[in-house]
Amino acid sequence: MSKFLKSTALALAVSLIAAPAFADKFGLGRTALPEEIAAWDGDISPDGTGLPVGSGDALVGEEIFADKCASCHGDFAEGIGNWPKLAGGADTLNHDDPLKTVGSYWPYLTTTFDYIKRSMPYGDAGSLPDDEVYAIVAYILYSNDLIEDDFVLSNETFFDVEMPNANGFIVDNRAETEYVQWTGEPCMQDCKDVVEVTMRALVLDVTPDQGGAADEEVVETTKVEVEVDEVAIDAIDAELAAAGAKVFKKCKACHQVGDGAKNRTGPILTGIVNGAAGVVDGFRYSKPLTKAAEGGLVWTEAELAAFLAKPKAYLKGTKMSFSGLKKESDQAAIIEYLRSFGG
Amino acid sequence: MSDKDNELVSSRRAFLGGAVAAGAGALTTGAAQAQTADPLITEIQPWAQGFGDGVDAVRYGLPTEHEGDVIRRNVEWLTADTVSSINFTPIHALDGTITPQGCAFERHHSGAIDLKKDDYRLMINGLVDNPLVFSYADLERFPRENHVYFCECAANTGMEWAGAQLNGAQFTHGMIHNMEYTGVPLRTLLEEAGLDTTGDLSGKWVFVEGADASSNGRSIPMEKALDDVLVAFKANGEALRKEHGYPVRLVVPGWEGNMWVKWIRRIEVMDGPVESREETSKYTDTLEDGTSRKWTWEMDAKSVVTSPSPQAPIKHGTGPLVITGLAWSGRGAITRVDVSKDGGKNWETARLAKPGEKMALTRFYLDTDWDGSEMMLQSRAMDDTGYVQPTKTQLREVRGLNSIYHNNCIQTWLVRSNGEAENVEVS
Predict the structure, then answer these.
(1) Which CATH class is domain A238-339?
(2) pLDDT averaged over chain A?
């Protein structure tokens, strides 16, 4: 955030009068209002410029984190699947495959605040009040053993926290370390004695399948056939389903539903309401879920509501890292929303 | 050289010279004399008899279905989610230098957003006399420029640091596109907001951020901001595509793609860099001793043979063969590209389709005669600073094995005698 915000009003008044004097200006655009600048200018500099007044601690942060962050980043900020790990990795930077987290790598704590405030939670960016951001940052620090659980992080205590890798960065030095030695007339003939293949990509076999548009057409045809089989469903309460669509934002980071849905961290949810549990092709369920499915679990509205209320209490060992929907109205809304995709 | 080889070469020369050397040419696959008449010629074909499509059959055309495999491709295991992911330009199947927008790679941090021109706002604030808000229409009233530039993700070829991984130029080198941009110099907009560009701006930066949920923000030193950065709204003559930042994106010539903020909504003049997530935790380069380079913005000279390559094998047998590829440098213009068929032992200088242009893709060709023997194909670019594209070994000697970004190493394709190619590393 600009330090110059306060002087904006003055500058504005001056420039309005002075504007015609600038011959090289086009007179395009309009003056940005202070409240517009305040709405968009949220960046926080390493010296703390832009940090809002507020506070939070790791205990409060833990609850918020479980609710809004853990579905991707794990309960302990350890990360799930390909989602970023936020904790751990201390002293790994000079090892093979270093683990780069807020604790092990990030040089400035302001960056963490800035990023969470502007970009998180994933799918619902910019929704966190400043105190919640402080609390989440505190929880991430706590998960990295950088603060105690009774430390209150605020705009005033912010720089009491030492970032372990604060001095771990150097400014681009390619000019001295690389350009000097890789400049000049290169060898053209007999540059090596022997050339041997030392590694082959085929051995790894990680190149994706390269089906083109033709393959995709086949898939589409199959889809149409499936739709023919669709059974008539009870009328959907559109208003409730719309409310459910909003609640579903909490789920979207891991689940997709409807046309073109794919398995992500969680399985596709199309047709889940009143459908058999554990049947989505290509998704690796947790053992407890698989066992429940073998036992004939069907996701009736009542079962789903119970699961959504407290996933880990309902199914111990579930992979679903989500703290639950406390409000019955939210449960009902999301079920209606999912029901609108069949089931 | 055997007699047969001699004949092949002479037949090729005759062919290039325009002579109808049918006798000698019979030995090569391509010029073989037909034994039976070709029905495609002797029989009237449906397309030669009836009608094709009328005008307006397609109001905005896509490539013909026969080119259905020339598409962007994703490597699913790389990322957790397609809305924060990347895909790859099918460079193995393209020629020339301009990348069609429809198959130019995408990189999103929170998905490609739908932002109408009417809803678009660009704010300039911070250390300027008069913070301004521009509409899209305002931008089109400033004097504008046209420039062709490549945009390369810093992570292009990043998966190849530790060893040969992905089998295809699209996957190893496809985080790049090259377009002709139309836009307004950032300098013009900053001056409009009252920045005195003749004054002392040392130590000043601009922070640029996007309108999407990721709000991707990067800091750019003022010297670059005033040099050649464009606020662009057209690419290849038409509006930007949604996935490339419609209606307005930033173009930062020669510098890593992450700085080319899409859906750009705000530019703030500042006293220093913000050190945002994308310029600290990401897009920094960890060296062997655990320290990391930051502010490695420039994309060094690099090249790759796009054909033949794993996705573009040789299917025509021996004889005339066009080896082609792309070269570029974020520090200037490409001046020369050398090609090796033996894994870097001996090199031949390739032909540049046009003289290299600053911070734009350059197409090179090596028109050759293939005798069917195995090749270890490499290309090596040089730019007008005299820099020579390094080998992977050279890069690793300086940076170690844990680097991800800015891998501009010489690539090797092992082309077998059956024409198939594989991504390999060589000694």
Answers:
(1) mainly alpha
(2) 84
Collapsed DSSP state (helix, strand, coil) of residue A172: coil
Q: What is the CATH number of the domain that holds B209?
A: 3.90.420.10
Q: Is the pLDDT of residue A225 over 50?
A: no
Specify whether B341 is located in the same domain as B199. Answer: no
Strand segments (E) across A67-137? none
Residue B283 tokens, joined: 């897009």
Question: How many CB pairs below 8 Å do chains A and B form together?
Answer: 292
Interchain CB contact of A258 with B (< 8 Å) = no
Beta strands in A168-276 (DSSP E): 169-171, 197-200
Say if B57 falls within a structural domain.
Answer: no
Give per-residue burial for A128-164: e unless 16+ CB within 10 Å, then b: bebbbbbbbbbbbbbbbebbeeebebbbeebeeeebb
pTM of the predicted model as reported, rounded to 2 decimal places: 0.81
pLDDT digits (tens, 9 = 90+) for A273-328: 888 888 888 787 877 888 888 888 888 888 888 888 888 788 877 877 677 887 88
Tell whether B64 lies on the interface with A, counting CB pairs under 8 A.
no
Selected for mutation to probe chain A from B167, B170, B288 (highest A CB count within 10 Å) is: B167
Helices and strands, counts by H and E, chain A? 14, 5
CATH class of A46-183: mainly alpha
ipTM score for this prediction: 0.90
Range of the domain at B395: 302-424
Number of H helices, E strands in chain B: 8, 24
CB-based contact (8 Å) between A317 and chain B? no
Domain tally for chain B?
3
What does the alpha-carbon distance between residue B187 and residue B3 come to, in Å, rounded to a whole number? 64
